[in-house]
């Protein structure tokens, strides 16, 4: 196996993270410019991304064990180049540019939009609650559940991840097929998913079963996707096309920073008070989000 300095690997990971930080907001911000059916477009985007990740996990591990680190890294770079080239093939979209805006104003534009619009503030609040809730699925926490309550090995966590991804893909197909019905009842779809996730989370905790855990993992993936599609369309319909990338950039920053902090908090909670408390905190966050969405359901009409 080739020897690579740890610093080089860390720098490579940092560069990829920075590039992903640019790509993620743009990927969703350009959807309204090229798609007329936002429901189908967002379903297809999420579903294809999850399918690629699912295949990539297995294929990446296989490549690493068979050909080594450097050739695998080279293949990754080639795939990034191909992806970038395909993006260049998209038709050019007209973008309104305000010459009077300074660089600082452009940088703060998304933050101002989020601060002023109550619908965007609701979106951020709900997103923060869900991010905190989802931290129980991080490896450092769910591994405790798998090993202590299910009495399974660490590899079982990988199976649950696969089941979760399969659930997202299946749900994406459903959302793609029934996009009009989901978008006609945005808040109802979101509420149904949240209530379902609360029930599944507590069921996993109080009825720990190795086989059922895989099924519930897939179910959580399905419910999260049924919630994500109407949320994405809501955001894309709420914000003007020219401002979408600014708002998505803000959401990406908030999500990344909050996820890092919440993982630390949930890890500390799990270590200090046990996995049961962590699951209950997750369920409570989902309950609060459910109440919040129901109270502000008129925003989704």
TrEMBL record:
Its main location: membrane. It comes from Streptococcus mitis SK564. It is found in: Cell membrane. Keywords: Cell membrane, Membrane, Transmembrane, Transmembrane helix, Transport. It holds the Pfam family MFS_1. The chain crosses the membrane at residues 7-31, 51-82, 122-146, 158-178, 190-207, 247-267, 273-295. It comes from the Bacteria. InterPro entries: MFS, MFS_dom, MFS_trans_sf. It is a multi-pass membrane protein. PROSITE patterns: MFS (PS50850). Residues 119-301 form the Major facilitator superfamily (MFS) profile domain. This is Major facilitator superfamily (MFS) profile domain-containing protein. One of its GO terms (cellular component) is plasma membrane. GO terms for molecular function: transmembrane transporter activity.
